[in-house]
Design brief:
Aminopeptidase; Glucose Oxidase, domain 1; 8-stranded mixed sheet; elongated; disordered N terminus
């Protein structure tokens, strides 16, 4: 799942650009032919779309695809074969990259012990990159609850040393966009275990990053940085977090017991999968569209980010189905290792820089496969104005919300490498996304076929317009 960070985005937002819909666009710069072409994309997607069945195979035959795992290797082979079978690319190839190899180990166990001595089970899972409990055995200690990293910093050493630090900051549900709430609560997961270790704690327990009230713990990356002492970090489901907080109020001396056997193994070789269609007029100008092939290991990685993967392939297929060859070169990229390292995105940008490539734009789908709304745009105000003029073309398909905002984690490295004119993040209705994000519930049955296929057509429409008109 993409995070909200980018120097380019910061500069764009400083210009105060508003969201743009049909009624607010600049003078139109398109033709009736363009309108008819977009209709072809949506007709093909809704009547003969291939995204849904491609996703079914990826999820149900391969499943969770954590970087470095055998399933990730199977997904690379599947991605290459699927692109070749789609027959819409001039060439399909692999781009090698080294990726981290963290393994979860046996199912994690957590329970609370109060003054009566009987354990109360708690739904937990290891955070990605965490170390195991010492000796892979149960670790029992007292608990200190905090809401923020700053609150932890203010505590005296005696209140922290030898205990679990319990980070219990919930989502801000007053925010309309769940992604903003995710960004606001995320530091406790990313940095909580490292900061707990620095203070002499034995481990960290982190409230899952979601508004949902259930017993599905949400994993996600944690980073130790230069922390001298690494302590285990685990996510608690929201119901478990609420229960632990209540029990602590009644008995501050209770103890938590955690057992995890995760470990980090040596890096392994993996690949980005790339399908390319050479442009008919401007072959040296490149448009990238992509999603990330890896996922967390708790489920099938359907919405995060199997949907983005199949939509990227389908968007290019829809161009060919409409009888078109893009004027600029289009690449569909299935990035490896977005979840716990961004090695694939970095390698793609590094290679683009070495080859002195010109990148007009890049599009990423990594926010789920829900109903289309439009695109987040990272660009200069002048380029944004040109993009905004395409709003009326997208309006009949409810994909015309063009908003300054973050594009995607895997395409962001292109900014420093080859300076693309604009980056785009496919934006869909994300209200349900964080209910299942990074959990065992991210499965194929949660994806709606029509919503998924509409997203691929929306991406094809943007590729078509970028390829025909450019951004200069």
């Amino acid at each position: 799942m993409r995070l909200l960070s980018s120097l380019l985005l910061a500069g764009l937002l400083a210009g105060g650009l508003p969201a743009v819909t049909q009624a607010q666009t600049a003078p139109a710069t398109f033709t009736k032919t363009d309108s008819l072409t977009l209709r072809k994309f949506y007709d093909e997607a809704l009547l003969r779309g291939q995204s849904y069945e491609n996703l079914r195979y990826l999820c149900e035959k391969i499943g969770g695809r954590l970087a470095g795992s055998p399933q990730a290797a199977q997904a690379v082979a599947w991605g290459k074969l699927t692109m070749e079978k789609a027959a819409c690319f001039d060439k399909v190839y692999l781009q090698e990259c080294q990726v981290p190899h963290w393994v979860r180990g046996a199912k994690e166990k957590g329970q609370v012990f109060g003054n009566k001595g009987k354990g109360v089970p708690m739904a937990v899972c290891a955070l990605g990159g965490s170390v195991a409990t010492p000796g892979n055995k149960p670790l029992r200690a007292g608990v200190v609850e905090v809401k923020t990293l700053a609150e932890l910093k203010a505590l005296p050493d005696a209140a922290v040393k030898g205990k679990f630090v319990f980070f219990n900051r919930p989502f801000d549900d007053a925010l309309i966009e769940p992604g903003a709430a995710y960004g606001g609560a995320g530091d406790q997961r990313r940095s909580g275990p490292a900061e707990a270790g620095r203070r002499g704690a034995v481990g960290a327990l982190v409230r899952s990053l979601t508004s949902a009230r259930d017993n599905n713990p949400h994993t996600g990356t944690t980073s130790y940085g230069d922390t001298p002492t690494k302590v285990p970090g685990a996510a608690l489901s929201t119901l478990a977090a609420d229960q632990l907080s209540q029990l602590l109020k009644a008995d501050p001396s209770l103890q938590f017991e955690l057992e995890m056997s995760c470990q980090t193994l040596p890096d392994v070789t993996s690949y980005n999968v790339i399908g390319e269609v050479r442009g008919s007029k401007y072959p040296d100008q490149i448009i990238t569209v992509g999603g990330h092939l890896d996922s967390w290991d708790l489920a099938q990685g359907a919405h995060d980010d199997g949907t983005g993967v199949v939509q990227s392939i389908e968007a290019v297929r829809l161009l060919k189905a409409a009888g078109l060859r893009p004027e600029r070169t289009v690449r569909a990229v299935l990035f490896m290792n977005e979840e716990n390292g961004t090695r694939g995105g970095n390698k793609y940008a590094e290679q683009a820089k070495q080859n002195n490539e010109t990148h007009v734009a890049a599009i990423e789908s990594d926010g789920g496969g829900f109903t289309p709304r439009g695109f987040n745009v990272e660009s200069t105000p002048a380029v944004f104005k040109k993009v905004a003029a395409w709003g009326p073309l997208l309006a009949p398909y409810h994909a015309n919300e063009l908003t300054p905002g973050h594009s995607g984690t895997d395409i962001e490295p292109l900014v420093g490498a080859v300076h693309p004119t604009a980056l785009f993040g496919y934006d869909c209705d994300s209200q349900r996304y964080f209910d299942i994000h990074h959990t065992a519930a991210d499965t194929f049955d949660k994806v709606n076929r029509r919503e998924l296929e509409l997203g691929g057509a929306s991406m094809a429409s943007l590729i078509y317009l970028l390829s025909k008109y450019g951004l200069q």
